[in-house]
């Protein structure tokens, strides 16, 4: 019986460690996602402000130039002859920039440079394949489905051989195959997967102190707290000095239980206290 209890405690501790590791990974991932979302929002905001300023400036110059040209003195008309061409050229450059072809006199456009680079890469890859004595046909044959290969009369033998080797490597060895989980481990995993509220000796919804939140963090610690309350009530009913037992229980809570900062420590000291109270 004691061996079964120890085995159950070990399984529960192992499950708690796994849960804590997963919780830490999840929190780290959430923090990284929040940071990435904040950076993306900042970049989008700065980009939107920059785009708004770049677009609004030519429009403003064009609007002011037209207004001064139609309704203004000769000084404003002179400035309008500067504002209107500046606004028009600004809108033209914005159009080319949005299209991906910023045109600068005497220099090639971005699309032209990108097309040239892609063409050079294609020629270099074909030249390397020709020097190595290979062609594009085997690659196309490897990408063909089995049905297409049969219809063309060319079976992808290399693909089948590589697939068989990969499937053989993917099969785990007998030493690496997982052993069936014990009923205690399955029960602990079922408890961990259960999304029902955690039940303790008190209402977890009203937990206020750090130790109460730690008790309500996992189903195992909540169950241990309920069993501790039952064991304390039974020991108090049988004790000849309830006041001394109450003082001893308060001393244990302050010195051992409240000193724990994780669920594994809390479960360990609680199980030890339950065994001590049960032996009274």
UniProtKB/TrEMBL annotation:
Repeat is among the record's keywords: no
Residue ranges occupied by any Lysozyme inhibitor LprI-like N-terminal domain in the UniProt entry: 204-277
Top-level taxon of the source organism: Bacteria
Bias kind Polar residues: ranges: 147-156
Keyword Cell division attributed: no
Segments traversing the membrane: 40-66, 78-98
Region annotated Disordered, chain positions: 147-188
The name this protein goes by in its record: Lysozyme inhibitor LprI family protein
Organism: Paraburkholderia fungorum
């Amino acid at each position: 019986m004691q061996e079964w209890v120890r085995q159950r405690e070990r399984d529960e501790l192992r499950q708690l460690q796994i849960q804590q590791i997963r919780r830490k990974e999840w929190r780290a991932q959430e923090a990284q996602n929040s940071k990435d979302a904040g950076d993306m929002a900042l970049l989008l905001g700065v980009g939107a402000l920059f785009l708004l300023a770049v677009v609004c400036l030519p429009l403003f110059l064009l609007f002011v130039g037209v207004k001064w040209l139609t309704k203004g003195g000769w000084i404003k008309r002179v400035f309008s002859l500067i504002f209107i061409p500046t606004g028009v050229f600004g809108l033209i450059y914005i159009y080319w920039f949005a299209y991906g072809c910023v045109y600068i006199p005497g220099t090639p456009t971005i699309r032209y440079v990108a097309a040239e680079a892609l063409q050079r890469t294609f020629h270099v890859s074909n030249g390397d394949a020709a020097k190595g004595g290979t062609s594009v046909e085997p690659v196309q044959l490897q990408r063909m489905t089995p049905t297409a290969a049969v219809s063309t009369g060319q079976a992808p033998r290399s693909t089948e051989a590589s697939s068989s080797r990969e499937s053989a490597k993917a099969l785990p060895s007998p030493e690496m195959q997982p052993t069936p989980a014990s009923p205690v481990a399955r029960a602990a995993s079922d408890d961990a997967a259960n999304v029902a509220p955690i039940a303790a000796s008190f209402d977890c919804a009203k937990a206020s102190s750090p130790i109460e939140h730690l008790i309500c963090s996992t189903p195992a610690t909540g169950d241990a707290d309920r069993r501790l309350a039952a064991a304390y009530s039974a020991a108090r009913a049988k004790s000849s000095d309830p006041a001394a037992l109450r003082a001893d229980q308060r001393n244990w809570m302050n010195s051992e239980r409240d000193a724990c900062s994780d669920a594994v420590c809390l479960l360990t000291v609680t199980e030890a206290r339950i065994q001590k109270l049960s032996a009274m």
